[in-house]
């Protein structure tokens, strides 16, 4: 079934439910993305958003969807539902849409308008990234793709990586990239030593006034690392979060558990940018996103994320890069 027929059929069902509950509203347009079907609603002036929210489950039933999300986006209201036959956003396919990529910039995925979504680490509003989500949300794949895209778009003399991966499952396939500055840290002791040296490097850079190469400290399983390393991890990591950007040092960290009992308020406050996938509850969504009412607990998983930065929330589908694709792509790039 083509996209136009999907939109027309589902729009009719939405309007039927609204009419049944005497809600004066109509579907004024829609979009089919690789993973979502999204409808725009035009409401009568007196209709309250809370009344629409109360119909979310009934709309999901009428649409045959697992879930249905109703949200205000600036001055409009949107209804979203997961799309049957959702497909992955392939890394190479999305890269072909890029004409010019600014320095220190990574590819995250595709936004709701079908455009590549980029994030520039050297931007004052970005600095560090906290990636949150349950198992199956796609956070490790997102982090791995983000790092690989940085390597694709930047030379080793401009961007270098420090990899900390206690389970050796997230970043081990990146170890042979020429951008990697030190052997991957797979133990708590190695991570403590690396972070301690990085604090000294940050202080030296501050004193000398330089920021190159930009250093990206990538951490998988942050919560587990903090629980095993305690203050020996938390203290140097917090210092890097507080002062690293000015010295050209950025932290990209993944965690399943963004809870207050694991990540201190000071640490969370120094992650100004969040990439939030599906989480277990509204409370976890509030902590992960740093704002209330993000709706992250209603995300479908499988790479559906929110970018939360500088007061804005942007929904996107994360780019897909399988671990076994990295080495063939790396060899091809070196041959070229």
What would your notes on this structure say?
By secondary structure, this protein is α/β, with parallel strands linked by helices. The longest helix has 21 residues, at 188-208. It has helices spanning 3-20, 49-53, 56-63, 91-95, 139-153, 188-208, 222-229, 231-243, 265-269, 282-289, 323-335, and strands at 25-32, 36-43, 69-73, 76-82, 89-90, 105-111, 116-120, 129-132, 159-164, 214-219, 249-255, 273-276, 304-309, 312-320. Helix 1 (3-20) packs across helix 3 and helix 6 (188-208) runs parallel beside helix 8. Mean pLDDT is 89; it is low at 332-336. Helix content is 35%, strand content 25%. Strands 5, 6, 7, 8, 9, 10, 11, 12, 13 and 14 form a ten-stranded mixed β-sheet that branches. It has a four-stranded antiparallel β-sheet with strand order 1-2-4-3. Strand 13 and strand 14 (312-320) form a beta hairpin. It has eleven helices and 14 strands.
């Amino acid at each position: 079934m083509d996209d136009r027929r999907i939109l027309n059929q589902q729009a009719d069902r939405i309007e039927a439910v609204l009419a049944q509950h005497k809600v004066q509203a109509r579907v004024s347009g829609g979009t089919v993305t690789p993973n979502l079907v999204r409808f725009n609603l035009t409401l009568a002036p007196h209709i309250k958003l809370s009344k629409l929210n109360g119909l979310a489950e009934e709309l999901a039933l009428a649409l045959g969807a697992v879930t249905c999300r109703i949200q205000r986006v600036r001055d409009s209201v949107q209804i979203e539902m997961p799309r049957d036959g959702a497909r992955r956003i392939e890394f190479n396919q999305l890269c072909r849409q890029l004409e010019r990529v600014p320095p220190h910039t990574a590819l995250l995925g595709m936004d709701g308008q079908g455009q590549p979504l980029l994030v520039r680490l050297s931007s004052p509003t970005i600095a560090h990234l906290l990636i949150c989500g349950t198992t199956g949300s796609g956070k490790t794949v997102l982090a791995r793709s983000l790092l690989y895209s940085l390597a694709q778009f930047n030379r080793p003399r401009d961007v270098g990586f420090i990899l900390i991966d206690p389970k050796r499952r997230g970043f081990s396939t990146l170890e042979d990239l020429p951008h990697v500055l030190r052997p991957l840290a797979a133990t708590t002791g190695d991570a403590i030593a690396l972070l301690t040296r990085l604090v000294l490097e940050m202080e030296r850079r501050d004193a000398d006034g330089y920021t190159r190469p930009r250093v990206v400290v990538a951490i998988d399983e942050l919560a587990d690392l903090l629980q095993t390393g305690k203050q020996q991890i938390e203290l140097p990591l917090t210092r890097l979060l507080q002062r690293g950007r000015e010295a050209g040092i950025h932290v990209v960290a993944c965690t399943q558990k963004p809870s207050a009992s694991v990540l201190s308020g000071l640490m969370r406050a120094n992650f100004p940018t969040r990439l939030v996938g599906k989480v277990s509850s509204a409370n976890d969504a509030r902590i992960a996103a740093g704002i209330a009412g993000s709706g992250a607990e209603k995300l479908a998983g499988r790479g559906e994320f929110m970018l939360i930065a500088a007061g804005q929330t942007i929904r996107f589908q994360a780019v897909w890069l399988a671990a076994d694709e990295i080495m063939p792509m790396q060899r091809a790039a070196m041959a070229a």
